[in-house]
Amino acid sequence: MKYSAITLLKKVLVYCAGLFIMAMGVSFSGTADLGMSPVNSIPYVLSEIFTFLSMGTWIIVIFSLYILIQFLILGRDLQPARVLQLICTTLFGYFTDFTNFLADRFLPDPASLSLSPAGIYGVRLLYLAISMALIALGILLYLAPCLISLPGEGIMQVIADKLHLPLHTVKMCFDITVSLIALAISLAYFRQFHGIREGTVIAAFGVGKILGLYEPLKPRVHRFMYGWEAA
Q1: What DSSP assignment string belongs to 98-127?
Q2: Which domain range does residue 152 map to?
Q3: What local confidence, expressed as pLDDT, does residue 193 receive?
Q4: Type and span of the H or E element at 59
Q5: Domain membership flag for residue 87
Q6: Per-residue pLDDT tens over the stretch 121-171
Q7: What's the first-to-final CA gap in the chain, in angstroms?
């Protein structure tokens, strides 16, 4: 289907807005310090160890590895268009660095607040809740234009198609795998849980639940992009 230049521009704007809002959610999650979402856990832990590279740069590195794995799995069935995932990977990485910069400047660190331990933990939970709400909204917006998927979703889809498995099953296995890898790296370097905590588990289930609450927004997003309400 061909779209007008205005429609394409709106689709790109919605797509980029979704990536940016997801990056904001990642930054809130990092400030909460209760554990990152599974897909961002490895870049976060590596950025805490190898600080000469930012978290956004580590996102680009790890997500690019996911693209390479997709190519290896597909083999002769390689779809060259999948290399376009580098575009959204780079955008998301830069957005994450920018929102981390904003969070460092304007978002109070819970540990620095003059509150009781219970109060500090409450602030961390509040940040985590905001993080999940932002990530869920970002997912809704970034998926709505049906443009390029991030490599995390891309590799899950490739594995699901190749092994003839339900996508939700592959997602669960993928999330567990990357979380365990991040946990192993964290324990090996920090000798404690760092980047993988209760917030990781809460986000793994909570983001999907919140995403369902955003369903009524879909028609409005489609009206903005296309001028009509999709079914």
Answers
A1: HHHHHHHHHS--GGGSSS-HHHHHHHHHHH
A2: 5-226
A3: 83
A4: helix 55-74
A5: yes
A6: 999 999 999 999 999 999 999 999 989 889 998 899 899 888 888 878 888
A7: 17
Predicted local distance difference test score (pLDDT) of residue 217: 92
Max mean pLDDT among 54-68, 73-87, 200-214 falls in 54-68
Q: How far apart, in whole angstroms, are the C-alpha atoms of residue 176 and residue 210? A: 20
Fill in the DSSP letter of residue 226.
H
DSSP characters over 30-42:
HHHTS---HHHHH
Whole-angstrom distance, CA of residue 82 vs CA of residue 22 = 21
pTM attached to this predicted model: 0.90
Return the structure tokens found at 174: 């993928």
What domain count does the chain have?
A: 1
Confirm whether 231 is domain-assigned: no
CA distance 16 to 225: 13
